[in-house]
Amino acid sequence: EVGPGTGVLTKFLIEKTKNLYIVEIDRESIPVLKNQFPTLANKIIQADFLKYDIIGLFNGPFSIIGNFPYNISTQILFRALEYRNEVREVVGMFQKEVAERIASPPGSKKYGILSVLLQIYFDIEYLFTVDENVFYPPPKVKSAVIRLRRNDVTHPGCDEKLLVSLVKAAFNQRRKMLRNPLKIFKFVENDDVANLMTKRAEQLSKEDFIFLVNSIC
């Protein structure tokens, strides 16, 4: 579990698994957690999840869950991407607009960089919306819970670093046809590439982006 705070979610998770680890960056929360969950004392880790070597805790696949701090929620997902060969599932609460962006299909105005990169390796479900009034004090934004389940893709079938660069470049000017933001790349000349260049980034599927990477000279 990432960012448990005082253990509001932890008390439910501890009933579901015998191998629960907690990563909390706030030093003041650690004594509270250890006092509340004495059986987890050796599994409560005071650390920055974005920098901590999570792989070393497990001897196999693991899942990530949490009411994620909104200011680092997308970074947590990039971390899950980094650990994609070990992470089998991610369930978390995000700011609603971030959750919608991650789960959006091609053609949506909310479809973006994270949508493409995560959907290559994970099947994503938008589970439910959480109203701001269930919190005290209520935040100014709505929240949502989504689930990412690892699929069978082990490699995208193209150069991964080039894929990230191309996707970021495409969405950097998302309102323009791709021939403008992607002019920094040299593509082979054929009808399929030419057709994709007349579209905007949000209109392309993850397969289209992979095709374009493989069409770079």
Describe this structure in words.
The protein is α/β, with parallel strands linked by helices. The chain has helices spanning 10-13, 29-36, 73-82, 96-103, 113-121, 160-172, 191-196, 206-214, and strands at 22-24, 44-46, 62-67, 87-95, 122-130, 143-150. The strands form two sheets. A four-stranded mixed sheet has the order 3-4-6-5. Strands 1-2 form a two-stranded parallel ribbon. Helix 3 (73-82) links the parallel strand 3 (62-67) and strand 4 (87-95). The longest helix has 13 residues, at 160-172. The radius of gyration is 20 Å and the shape is elongated. The model has no long low-confidence stretch (mean pLDDT 95).
Quick tags:
217 residues, two-stranded parallel ribbon, elongated, 31% helix, alpha/beta
Question: Which range best describes the helical content: under 10%, 10-25%, 25-40%, 40-55%, 55-70% or over 70%?
Answer: 25-40%
Per CATH, the class of the largest domain reads Alpha Beta
The CATH architecture of the largest domain can be given as 3-Layer(aba) Sandwich
pLDDT under 50 segments (min length 5)?
none
- Gyration radius over CA: 20 Å
Q: Helical region count?
A: 8
The biggest sheet, with number of strands, parallel, antiparallel or mixed sense and barrel status, is: 4 strands, mixed
CATH topology of the largest domain: Rossmann fold
What portion of the residues fall into strands of 2 or more residues?
Answer: 15-25%
Q: How far is it from the N-terminal to the C-terminal residue, by CA?
A: 44 Å
Q: What strand order characterises the main sheet?
A: 3-4-6-5
The gross shape turns out to be: elongated
Mean pLDDT: 95
* The CATH homology group name of the largest domain: Vaccinia Virus protein VP39
SSE-based structural type: alpha/beta
How many domain modules?
Answer: 2
Element string (H = helix, E = strand): HEHEEHEHHEEHHH
Overall strand count: 6
